[in-house]
Amino acid sequence: MASLTDLVNLNLSDTTEKIIAEYIWIGGSGMDLRSKARTISGPVTDPSKLPKWNYDGSSTGQAPGEDSEVILYPQAIFKDPFRRGNNILVMCDCYTPAGEPIPTNKRYNAAKIFSNPEVAAEEPWYGIEQEYTLLQKDINWPLGWPVGGFPGPQGPYYCGVGADKSFGRDIVDAHYKACLYAGINISGINGEVMPGQWEFQVGPSVGISSGDQIWVARYILERITEIAGVVVSFDPKPIPGDWNGAGAHCNYSTKSMRNDGGYEIIKSAIEKLKLRHKEHIAAYGEGNERRLTGKHETADINTFSWGVANRGASVRVGRETEQNGKGYFEDRRPASNMDPYVVTSMIAETTIIWKP
Fold it and tell me: Do residues 290 and 300 make contact, with C-beta atoms less than 8 angstroms apart?
């Protein structure tokens, strides 16, 4: 008699050409990931070859009940680490039946910015450091923390090892390998300063693919924590007080910055970011004011600053970039709950297209 595990792990390719495609989209809050699956007649590698689909937008806060249909447009395909075989994960964005992007579709405007000839010529690269916190399911308290109490102060937990310092490594490692399997350019993971908090990095990714990859990496993390019975939080300051918040630092470069003489281009780009500081902060994630206090390796939310090797600045330039006279910089302001479509495209728009 087959067990549930045996059936979940059935290899479809033994008996059929058909595959399962899991369509993923972003719900009405801007952070809630949704997905549903459909059967496709055979393997697909090009998202334009996949059918559009629809869902009930009134159940996701994205449409009224009397006109609830929202259309899913497939945009990017990844291998499915859960079903494996030829099965796929499909990142979609959302439109009205008339073909207009719905208000929560942030990918549409990002794609327009990245297809701008000026931006495309600069081949913008992104490396995003996505921090998150693992929580005990029924009490919403960090993994490894005593119920109703606190662990010892920060210090031993960052990149720490041992049962009293590292909590949730099995989830983190499962996520790492699942992302590599899926085809996401995940470049590393590490334990963070607050116990129960972790980070994964995605990149370098070019243009719109950075947002696609971060969203699918978040989706995979949500699915793995679902299996583990743990909650993942992207709140920028999950625990008040003397505990680090969670960010999504965005490392960025253009072709001009990576070439000889690029350091001057970097300094000019940072000056543009300074002039649009308020606009960027407004788009960099809800609740970020609880995180950007000037403490715990952050700059104050109301003040723009930059420096070489300075982790207390809004924007950090690496020592190697300064020495080489070219390279990249890190925007440390985005919160862990930022929308990568918004942040990556806004940085490109400000530094390449916008004229002060």
Answer: no
DSSP summary character for residue 337: T
pLDDT of residue 141: 97
- Count of other CB atoms within 10 angstroms of residue 36: 12
Tokens of 144: 């490894």
- Predicted model pTM: 0.97
Reduced to 3 states (helix: H, G, I; strand: E, B; else coil), residue 261 is: coil
HSE-CB of 310 using CA atoms within 13 angstroms? 12
Q: How far apart are CA 217 and CA 213, in angstroms?
A: 6
- Which two tokens mark 65? 């009940």
Encoded tokens for 189: 């993971």
Q: Which residues of 127-146 are buried (b: 16+ CB within 10 A; e: fewer)?
A: bbbbbbbbbbeeeebbbbbe
In the DSSP assignment, the letter for residue 192 is -
* pLDDT 10s digits, 313-341: 999 999 999 999 999 999 999 999 999 99
Start-to-end C-alpha separation, the chain: 70
Cβ neighbours of residue 154 under 8 Å, at least 6 residues apart? 193, 194, 195, 242, 243, 244
